[in-house]
Amino acid sequence: MVEADEYDPPGAVILHGSGPQGRRGLFEAGLGIAYDPPIPAYASLAEQLALRGFAVLTYDKRSCFAENSAECPQSIDDYPGDYYFISIDDFLEDARMATRTLHETLDQDVIVVGHSQGAMFGALIGADEPGVCGVALLAGATLSLVDTVSGQLNEFADYIESVDPGNPAIADLRMQADEALSVLTQIEAGTYAASAWMGAPTQFWADWIAMQANFHTSLADLDLPVYAAFAGSDFNVGPAHFDQFESWAAMGIPAAATTKMYPEHTHIFVPLTPEPPGHSDTVSGVLVDDLTSWVSAGE
């Protein structure tokens, strides 16, 4: 038996993707897939890491309220401010404070595990937060936000067209992609006239566009081991993002990168299966084993 004062676990902080995620990361669906029953992806990842000796911190995202997510206990009425104006910088600073809290609690360095939008935060935190010893990027977008949002819709339309050419959803997805490209391009240029798009203030999108545009610079500033995982059945962050990261890594950006593609895995790294419901009910154990080996190799 290991005594409490002898246990020195590696620490890991899980950083959410976009949307009002709770600490468990309950996903009911993703682009092109429905999870039945819903999958608590971050809880699954955290529990598997814990079984391998990690001390893991997950937390409720600032935008997670009972009104928009069944897993969030706090009401919008409890928020000390105007929730509508929660910013991308607020999410970044919350992720930074979570990382710092775990580092100070354990009194040792930790890794940050950023999923999707959280990968962008992870790279920024890893570059300047002294308590971080490694950064894991799970399905992190490498293209601009403009290309990411429009591209994911077009790629999903391409897939549907390849298996069901007459499906009316194809035209709808193309229209949504065109709208996203037009609106986000205008927001980036500062010419978008409306104050909001898709339920979020225009300034939120502008800040996200700018932060994503600096992702390459954030990676270049990283002097830490980086593990970049991409999923082969991911319409949110498709193969073009993997190719872009591979090209950066070949040029030494980031300086110490390990990259892996996980075929037949979804955006939340759940393996697809031939039997119903068509997917596993947990995050891939192969991914967790790979993360564990990567951390061990860097110690």
UniProtKB/TrEMBL annotation:
Please list the GO terms describing molecular function.
Answer: carboxylic ester hydrolase activity
Q: Where would I find the Serine aminopeptidase S33 domain in this sequence?
A: 41-242
What InterPro entries does this protein's entry cite? AB_hydrolase_Est10, AB_hydrolase_fold, Hydrolase_4
Ordered alphabetically, the record's keywords are: Hydrolase
Family annotation (Pfam families) = Hydrolase_4
The keyword tRNA-binding appears for this protein: no
Q: Does the keyword Hydrolase apply?
A: yes
PANTHER family noted in UniProt: ESTERASE ESTD
What's the protein name? Alpha/beta hydrolase family protein
The species this protein belongs to is Enhygromyxa salina
Identify the taxonomic lineage of the organism of origin.
Bacteria, Pseudomonadati, Myxococcota, Polyangia, Nannocystales
